[in-house]
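Support request, please re-run this one:
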Amino acid sequence: MKLTILLLFLPTVLAAQVNTSVDPIISQDYTEQVRKLRSSIDPVDSVAYKRNTMLRLKGQFSPGTHISRLKIADGFMQISPVWPRTLKLSGSYSGTIEFKNHNRLPGLQNDYAQGRSSDGALTWRGAETGEMFSYGPALSSLEFDGSSYPYDQSGKLVPAGTGNGNSAHPYREGIFRTAMVQSHQLRILSELYRYGKRSWNFGLKLGHGNEQLIIRDNKGSSNSLATELGTSIKWLTIKGTYLYSEQERTTANRNGLLNRAYQNAILTPVSFSNEQGTTLGEGQRSYSDMADNPWYLLRDNKNKYNWREHNGSLLLVLEKQHWYAKIHQTLQQVKEEHTERYRPGTFAWADGQYTNRSKRDLNYQLQSQAAHEIEYDNNDFESRIQFSHTFNSEHTRIRYQPDNSNYNYQRSSHDLFINTVNKFKTRNVTVILNAGNKGYISNTAVKNKFLLPSVDMGITLENVLRVLTLNASASYHMISRELAINKPMNYTNLLQYSVGDISGFRPVNEVSGFRGVSTINNREWDAHLNLYHRRNFSLTSSFYIKNIYDDIYPVFENGGIVLKNLADLRTKGMDLTFGVSSKRLLKNVYLNSSLSVFSYRTLVTKVREGYNFTPIAGFRNVHKTLVQGQAPGVIVGNAYQRDVAGNMVIGADGFPLVNPSPTLVGNPIPDFVAKWSNNINWKWFALGADLEWKKGGQVWNGTQAVLDYYGRSANSAAERNITGYVFKGVSTDGHINEIPVKFYDPSQGVETNRWTRYGITGVAEQYVQKADYLRLNTVGLTYRINLNRNKQQLKLVTYVNNILLWSPYKGAGPDQLLYDQPNTSGLDFFNLPAVKTYGFNVTYQF
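Re-run finished. Output below.
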């Protein structure tokens, strides 16, 4: 562009270099253009004088473009090309296919049949007896009798030598499969340029996906459409967008159906086959009338979930000299529908059960912002005053059928913010100081907030020791907020159920309302110290303290869920990251790497009187709770009885006694999490890998407890024949325990063995396990191909996610959530396993 202007004014330049008068060299085209401009030029001006005037280029102009006309006004020159309008098209297509397998599962036993001890011997008991336990005889000691038996095509099981000679064998059947996910996305962008300046732009994005879940007989799909249209008219920019998105699934798992199917699948004795049939007569065929066949739950259940969203927005931006203004409006409509059914004959639902949950959201948001740049004679100083306002109008309606219960929520809120942004910059020093105040007004808050100050300070020093850049900043913010009215909180229903009666779980209670509570108020301090080396190294750090006052939690009271300001909390944390970017290792080989460590500690500093030990997630008998002086969400359950010295107290039968009072047994918050990401580039190839290490944190393994109780765990099989074991501890009179016990004594009832004597969840303290892990998260290989002189690109990516996991935790995964519900980390009760993903993606940009 500079070269073009120089060529245009070459005659003027030449004329300015001599002292003698010469005839101007003027092209015919140039003379014609000047003639056309005569009407806008003062008559006293000469062509020569005009040639000696310094002009600035207005708009855009590409060298080599044929010129249509020139326009000069107010010291600016605008060059118009021959073709005033140009249309540019670009876009991309991306297609992905993924295959998913389940990761680690809990260890199961495959050696012992359904049954229990009877008359001093281990006895097989078939499905018609209602037997739930797998404490029967070894399969190797049984064979089929070949009789007509509705619960097994091969007949009943009898002692070896008394049947037809066909030995019993474990039925190996799985509820999981290799899942497949396909997704496609097409994006097209068109831009219309007028005289080199973009005047209109249009975008279109289409997406489609299909998914088969790892649990068989479950699938899902998604579709999306997004469009945008924008234009620029002098100082005004207008942009409109529209988004449509939909998702469908056969089961959304809101009521824990998938977890229930998984639970029944792995509790099924190895001597029973669920695949041989799901119905018997007019009822369900299962290994016990107190259990379910997982395929009876999953197949032909007419469950369904769908989600629809319409989202439209209009953006207006005004920019003129030192003023800036923006108005952004958004209207969103969301429809969500859950259809949940249990067929007649399902355990705990003899007549079947039907629930329809319909949710409608209608949200409007208006964002306004205005800013003014302040001019100073000193160019080293910049200052801006800005004001912003956000208005939200939210409506949520939830309806349950056949209960005919309705919940209607409405909130109108205003967020106000006025602040100044100040920047001082010299050669090597930049100083930033921002200060302002926020206000929050809402029709659902007990008290509105008008004084919420915020301060941000920062300094940047460049060329420290000639090779370093140092950046330091600190901030203080006061924030007032409320819980979103469309946030689901029906997970609180689970707290009304113990583990033993979870089959009757039906979440049909929502929060009664959002009025009558104070806002959640935060006071946050944070500081950052960053160091950058010009040779590709960086060290960044952040430290923060966050005080939360009047935090809100849902509580089940008087048959409903209500919100209450229950607790104050304090969080202290830090984050350190060391990075290497574009570090050359060999010729054409470059490394990008980062190692980060973050850690935080949260403490409940105050709990509202009468609400200490309030459950916030989980079951009635094992849950996460609020305890003053502890981390939020510590795990509470039963524990062994201990004396003042911490010794376990042993009963007269030689087995440990249980403390009847609930006790703190675990804390799910880790000590720290470290992540190491690496990417090596060689020519057109890139190889990346991410490693993650979590240290600390605990999980209650309720899955292991129930498997032990029913005799289906590998642990119960390995230890059921242990005899003469002496538990370490003291007797009730304080003496060292010396009573030997048998873990499973056939001469006694099954209810007295090592695992069943404490109930279905055992002793919660015993099943709290370490949640540390070292996980190889992702390995990916990328190959890029540049096409058509680098105007187009083809990118091929293959990757594997969640590859390897090393952990002392014995369950499916320490990070999985209870019934896929929020705030339930640290609780494992037949949580669905994590998945390993093998994927391939192709992206074409044009």
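The chain is about 5% helix and 50% strand. Residues 257-267 form the longest helix (11 residues).
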